[in-house]
Design goal:
Chain B: It comes from Cryobacterium lyxosi. Chain B: GO terms for molecular function: asparaginyl-tRNA synthase (glutamine-hydrolyzing) activity; ATP binding; glutaminyl-tRNA synthase (glutamine-hydrolyzing) activity; transferase activity. The complex is a heterodimer. In chain A, about 60% of the residues are buried. Chain A has a single domain, classed as Amidase signature (AS) domain (Amidase signature (AS) enzymes, Alpha-Beta Complex), CATH 3.90.1300. By secondary structure, chain A is an alpha/beta fold. In chain A, strand 7, helix 10 and strand 8 form a beta-alpha-beta unit. Chain A contains 18 helices and eleven strands. The two termini of chain A are about 35 Å apart. Chain B is mainly α. In chain B, about 20% of the residues are buried. Classes of the chains: A alpha/beta, B mainly alpha. Chains A and B meet through helix 11, helix 12, helix 13, helix 14 and helix 15 of A and helix 1, helix 2 and helix 3 of B.
Chain lengths: ~525, ~100
């Protein structure tokens, strides 16, 4: 049954709907594959094997009884550990929440259950989503399926690696400055950050509330669209949730597969997100993709976004400021661990300080202290106040660009996957990875990453970022699906079919080698 | 912009309620100095006539009708607490003896 893990969610759904395959068979195939490969990759922090098989059996019974279910009913999915799940531990990759089982489901998780998707487990991430490599997880790194010595991106490295290694056809992620799109780029998978407010964040453990957004992770654009349709829409439990009604993203993706879908589409190339600092193979694949777009009838224009140069700086003031406030809730009273100080009196203040010292990792402490600094009297105007003004300028850059073009494109990340440890010692080197993805979060616009080939110098995946105006998420799916189809036609295969095989034997051999 | 000192980091850690070891204070002082130098460039373009944006979407306050809706039970609310006393969260002393 291993072939079941190779299928897209859409293809698996067809077999489930036509009853050629049962949800139990599909779920068992994925659980078996997790057992075989995840000891090594470590995409999952928790696997809910029995609960998943029970849920799958219920879907099979309902389908057998003739009930008409959502087309994704019975399709397995992995959940980033930042999302509350009432039957699974939810840690956000932090020791401070070790073993915490929330008393409620995040709205997006409730939507998945209602649609009959099978929750396989929770995926690894940088602690509280702070990072671009998943090296900041308190529970150990996740390995990139393309090269075990390299990072799977971050913060959602677990979700991207799970999908790229065929442990799940779908996953949920969260994107504050690129945490869905950058892992997608470096693992050869697909990731979408929806418009701010397009998907509920109720039950998503908050990092930076003016930037965070939950979105789909998958292997194909159409699969991401199917998942977006399940999780999107207004949620009264999230006061930043938009009340708009949304078109079908799946229909938008299908529209991209028709002949001439790219004809006349105005594509803007952002001048500031190219050139110096971009790996040669990334630039090469990006340029080739632009040529492919031209051949398909799209109109390419270079656009300038002069204030994007200040986006990373503004982001690393706004994010820590908001995070320092959001993470104040970890006070050792209502949830999480409690640690008593080694000396001194046992007051609430001392216990809270000892708990946070023991429970938070280095990067979380760094950002809380930075945020506390940026918000302190005397510095507020110079730092936080200025960063908010830069945010206005970046929104104006987007508005000017979208007055000329339909979508904007750039490489999803400046480089392919880097090696473990390469950027850990220098925080700014790590932060600059997100130069391409951060502007979309500051402006609230939707962004998508799709694979566009392997960099010739290292054979690792390169991603294309597509951005659209706020609320025009459907446009991403149309353009993304069209480009994906063109590339696969040219290659003669999908991107992930080229990833090295992960077999238990190979895993054993490499472990022996390490000794 | 001002230079960040170890005393400042220790004070910020107190404000943020995180005990830091002397070693952590040393490394954070160095890291923060570098980070602040890199991000201070925001003031280059943030002119007085540029309005600040706090939020990517123009949203106003959201209200709901003042009616009782289902909420967590006491058991659910206390289920993740590190310590409890009956139906309440048990917390360490608020005031020091001294």
């Amino acid at each position: 049954m291993t072939y079941l893990t190779k299928l897209s969610a859409a293809a698996l759904s067809e077999l489930l709907v036509s009853k050629q395959v049962s949800a139990v068979e599909a779920t068992r195939a994925h659980l078996d594959h997790i057992t075989a490969v995840d000891t090594d990759l470590h995409a999952f922090l928790h696997v809910a094997g029995d609960a998943a098989l029970d849920a799958a059996a219920k879907i099979d019974a309902r389908r057998a009884a003739g009930e008409v279910l959502n087309s994704l009913a019975g399709v397995p999915i992995a959940i980033k550990d930042v999302l509350a799940t009432q039957d699974m531990p939810t840690t956000a990759g932090s020791k401070i929440l070790e073993g915490w089982v929330p008393p409620y489901d995040a709205t997006v998780v409730a939507h998945l259950r209602a649609a009959g998707l099978i929750l396989l487990g929770k995926t690894n991430m940088d602690e509280f989503a702070m990072g671009s490599s998943t090296e900041h997880s308190a529970y150990g790194v996740t390995r990139n399926p393309w090269d075990r010595d390299r990072i799977p991106g971050g913060s959602g490295g677990g979700s991207a690696a799970a999908v790229a290694s065929f442990q799940a056809p779908l996953a949920l992620g969260s994107d504050t400055g690129g945490s869905i799109r950058q892992p997608a780029a470096v693992t050869g998978s697909v990731g979408v950050k929806p418009t701010y407010g397009g998907v509920s964040r109720y039950g998503a453990i908050a990092l930076a509330s003016s930037l965070d957004q939950v979105g789909p992770v998958s292997r194909t654009v159409y699969d991401a669209a199917l998942l977006h349709d399940v999780i999107g829409g207004h949620d009264p439990l999230d006061s930043t949730s938009l009340t708009d009604s949304w078109p079908s993203m799946a229909a938008a993706a299908q529209a991209g597969l028709t002949d001439g879908a790219l004809k006349g589409v105005r594509v803007g190339v952002i001048k500031e997100l190219a050139g110096d600092g971009f790996q040669a193979g990334v630039t090469q694949r990006f340029t080739e993709t632009l040529a492919l777009l031209v051949a398909a009838g799209a109109e390419i224009t270079e656009v300038s976004a002069p204030n994007f140069e200040y986006a990373v700086a503004a982001y690393y003031l706004i994010l820590p400021a908001e995070a320092s406030s959001n993470l104040a809730r970890f006070d050792s009273v209502r949830f999480g661990i409690r640690v008593n100080p080694a000396s001194g009196s046992l007051t609430s203040e001392h216990v809270m300080s000892a708990t946070r010292e023991a429970g938070f990792g280095d990067e979380v402490k760094r950002r809380i202290i930075l945020g506390t600094y940026a918000l302190s009297a005397g510095y507020y105007d110079a730092y936080y106040g200025s960063a908010q003004k830069v945010r206005t300028l970046i929104q104006r850059d987007f508005a000017a660009a979208f007055s000329q073009v339909d979508v904007l494109v750039s490489p999803s990340a400046p480089t392919t996957a880097f090696k473990f440890g390469e950027k850990l010692a220098d925080p700014m080197a790590m932060y600059i990875n997100d130069v391409t993805t951060i502007p979309a979060n500051l402006a609230g616009v939707p962004g998508m990453s799709i694979p566009i080939g392997l960099a010739p110098e290292d054979g690792l995946p390169v991603g294309l970022q597509i951005m659209a105006p706020a609320k025009a998420d459907a446009r991403l799916y149309t353009v993304g699906a069209a480009i994906e189809q063109l590339l696969e036609a040219r290659w003669g295969h999908t991107m992930l079919s080229q990833a090295p095989a992960l077999t238990p034997t190979e895993m054993f051999a490499s472990k022996e080698g390490a000794v | 912009m001002s230079e960040i000192t170890a005393e400042q980091v220790a004070h910020l850690a107190y404000l943020a309620r995180i005990d830091l070891s002397p070693l952590e204070i040393t490394s954070l002082t160095r890291d923060l100095g570098q980070i602040v130098d890199s991000i201070a460039k925001v003031s280059e373009v943030a002119t007085a006539d540029t309005p600040a944006t706090s939020h990517p979407m123009p949203l106003t306050n959201v209200f709901r009708d003042d009616v009782v809706v289902p909420s967590l039970t006491v058991e659910q609310a206390l289920s993740g607490a590190p310590d409890r006393a009956g139906d309440k969260f048990r917390v360490p002393a608020i005031l020091d003896e001294e």
